[in-house]
Amino acid sequence: MALTRIGLAGLAVMGQNLALNIAEKGFPISVYNRTTSKVDETVQRAKAEGNLPVYGFHDPASFVKSIQKPRVEASKIFQGDYYSTGSPVDKAQLVEDVRQALYASKICSYAQGMNIIKAKSAEKGWGLNLGELARIWKGGCIIRAIFLDRIKKAYDRNPGLASLLVDPEFAQEIMDRQAAWRRVVCLAINNGVSTPGMSASLAYFDSYRRDRLPANLVQAQRDYFGAHTYERVDMPGSFHTEWFKIARNISNN
Ligand SMILES: NC(=O)c1ccc[n+]([C@@H]2O[C@H](COP(=O)([O-])OP(=O)(O)OC[C@H]3O[C@@H](n4cnc5c(N)ncnc54)[C@H](OP(=O)(O)O)[C@@H]3O)[C@@H](O)[C@H]2O)c1
Q1: What distance in angstroms lies between residue 248's CA and the mean position of ligand 1's atoms?
Q2: 18 CB less than 6 Å from ligand 1?
Q3: What is the pLDDT of residues 10-53, one digit of tens each?
């Protein structure tokens, strides 16, 4: 089966090496860069490093065309209307909602990132100070966000913070924005527009903020297919249900 072509635009230090690395693993890749000599340079490097499957393009249109084939084919299969509420969209409101949704998603992704670092630090015994990390990043080459000041302050307020999400300031900001965030994600889902970042952040938030999650459904499924039993929240013990029989009774009645 032919592998899906990956696309990479921007062929400076990072881009060129990324492209060659991906191609070296056997994945065909299309590349494009504003200064087209870098496209040729990358293709030549690919050739010299063992005829790696790197395909160069000198204009954005042909570059995009070269990578969109599987999506174009899929779009022919999945045609038709999406579910839509049909109500007209207030564009000014939508723009503001997206702004708020983006901000809330950003808080969430920083919260996740910080907790990943915290977990690795605990595993490796690094003793990292998360507030200090935020301060140090501010001096780095890329992340200079004012946001990092606020993260540092959150950890100064409470060095043992379980998650940035529960810092009082960030929590309030999320609360103020969650309605807009939900509106944006719902609108996108209902119209078949993929918003992986915002949707994943919202799912993370909705998991994190719940004292109970729908894991009981998983327990029920395990009990159904393998009699693994389940626990209940209203009484101690292990339970098993003959789910088949219940289903049969329901369908018979
Ligand atoms: N270098 C690092 O240590 C590092 C670390 C983490 C993340 N990053 C991120 O990785 C990305 C690339 O880093 P880099 O250091 O290689 O960046 P860079 O030196 O700024 O190179 C960017 C490349 O993108 C090309 N480009 C810019 N706008 C374009 C457009 N509209 N169409 C096509 N090509 C375009 C540039 O073309 P021209 O050749 O025409 O200028 C250049 O070759 C950046 O987003 C950077 O923030 C870099």
Answers
A1: 61
A2: no
A3: 999 999 999 999 999 999 999 999 999 999 999 999 999 999 99
**Per-residue confidence (pLDDT) for residue 191, from 0 to 100:** 86
**Residue with CA at minimum distance from ligand 1 atom 32:** 34
Q: Whose CA is nearest to atom 1 of ligand 1?
A: 14
Structure confidence at residue 240 (pLDDT): 96
Which structural domains are found in the chain, ordered by start?
A: 6-77 (3.40.50.720), 91-208 (1.10.1040.10), 215-252 (1.20.5.320)
What's the pLDDT band for 140 if we cut at 50, 70, 90?
A: confident
Note whether 185 and 204 are within 8 A (CB): no
pLDDT at 224 exceeding the cut of 90: yes
Q: Determine the Cα–Cα distance for residues 243 and 228; give it in Å rounded to an integer.
A: 12
Q: Is 14 in the pocket of ligand 1 (CB under 6 A)?
A: yes
Q: Which of 34, 35, 36, 64 to mutate to test the pocket of ligand 1 (most atoms within 8 A of CB)?
A: 34
Query: Residue 253 CA to chain centroid, in angstroms?
Result: 45
Burial of 95 (0-12, 13-18, 19+ CB in 10 A): exposed
What are the residues whose beta carbons fall under 8 Å from the beta carbon of 173, sequence distance 6 or more?
A: 103, 104, 107
Which residue has the CA at smallest separation from atom 23 of ligand 1? Answer: 10
Q: What is the pLDDT of residue 146?
A: 82
Q: How far is the CA of 198 from the centre of ligand 1 (A)?
A: 24
